[in-house]
Design a protein that fits this description.
With 330 residues, the chain is an all-alpha fold. The radius of gyration is 20 Å and the shape is globular. The longest helix is centred in the N-terminal third of the chain and has 30 residues, at 68-97. The protein has one domain. It has 13 helices and no strands. It has helices at residues 3-22, 34-41, 46-62, 68-97, 106-113, 127-147, 149-170, 179-205, 219-235, 242-253, 260-271, 273-287, 298-326.
């Protein structure tokens, strides 16, 4: 997977994230649109980001670049984007548009700023498990190297299915009130996507292609297969299928022959996916119910949301990059 292909996958993931979260904004459920509801169920984006991260981290691991310094810099750069979004939306816009909305005890403010809690915005729940995954990746990759691809994938799948069962049975009654335990379970869930990405990297680094030549470049057939995958996942309402669906979609997208304009759009969205991820949660929570939902049609709502999130990302990413350079994180 080249850097360009990685950016394209991230672009796909952020598009799916905006589709998925649109279907989870209070008020959107009232829009009578069966097609969009089905598509939203099929668009869970987390596994896509995990696969790309697993691939990139494993390549860095094999190159000997994963050190405590590398991991701390990577995490702090992520936090820079997160904190900048919090300052703009929670400290800035929210205090102006919705005074008193984020009044919390000081200790909860601190826990929200480090991503331990998500009182500000539910869509930031993924931050802490992702950081735990990043710091544990080096040791998990050693296990993958020892066990091999097949056993590692089977073990990670068992862990994923087991933790999915725990969340489905105990989230409402217990887990949502015990953040530490919940973060550990969510971290365990990330390992399947991480393993898929690592296995792809292992195959590539060993000289084995993950591309099937008979399928590569046959865009019409690939698009039909993608439609079939999204339709199947959308009609089967269970999160257990998410990483399997994401793995298939990533594999199929890698076979697509992108023309220049679609490639430019997808790589641009992928390059700004991190800041779009943070911004879209607060934009949705603060603007949807009173402004964007008035557009009524899901497709129009989604297009406007993509444009707004991309606009904010274009403003925020250069600031994050300059802060990272100033803090010697790049």
């Amino acid at each position: 997977m080249s850097r360009e292909q990685s950016a394209i996958i991230k672009g796909v993931a952020i598009i799916l994230m905006l589709i998925y979260h649109l279907g989870n904004i209070p008020g959107i459920q009232g829009l009578d649109n069966v097609f969009y509801g089905t598509l939203s169920h099929a668009s869970h984006p987390i596994s896509f980001f995990l696969i790309v991260s697993g691939y990139g981290l494993y390549c860095a691991y094999r190159q000997g670049r994963i050190s405590w310094k590398y991991l701390v810099k990577r995490t702090l750069k992520l936090y820079l984007a997160f904190w900048l979004v919090l300052l703009i939306f929670v400290v800035g816009l929210a205090s102006w548009l919705y005074p008193g909305r984020f009044e919390l005890p000081w200790d909860k403010h601190i826990l929200n700023f480090i991503g331990w809690r998500w009182d500000y915005c539910l869509f930031t729940w993924f931050l802490m498990p992702y950081i735990l995954m990043t710091f544990s990746a080096k040791w998990f990759f050693r296990i993958i190297d020892y066990l091999g691809n097949a056993i590692s994938l089977a073990g990670a799948m068992i862990i994923y299915l087991s933790t999915s069962f725990l969340i489905s049975r105990y989230f409402e009654s217990w887990l949502q009130w015990h953040y530490g335990v919940y973060h550990v379970i969510l971290w365990a869930q990330t390992l399947f996507g991480l393993t898929v990405g690592a296995v792809m990297a292992r195959l590539f680094l060993s000289g084995k292609s993950i591309i099937w030549n008979k399928l590569h470049g046959k865009n019409i057939l690939i698009i039909l297969l993608l439609i079939a995958s999204f339709a199947f996942r959308g009609l089967i309402h269970t999160s257990v299928l998410n990483p399997f669906h994401a793995t298939l979609v990533v594999w199929l997208v890698l076979h697509l022959d992108f023309k220049e304009i679609p490639k430019l759009i997808m790589t641009e969205l992928g390059d700004k996916s991190m800041t779009m991820w943070f911004a879209q949660g607060f934009l949705g929570a603060m603007m949807f119910s009173e402004y964007i939902l008035q557009l009524r049609w899901p497709l129009l709502i989604w297009i406007v949301w993509v444009i707004i999130c991309y606009f904010f990302a274009c403003l925020l990413k250069p600031v994050v990059n300059r802060l990272a350079v100033a803090c010697k994180l790049s």
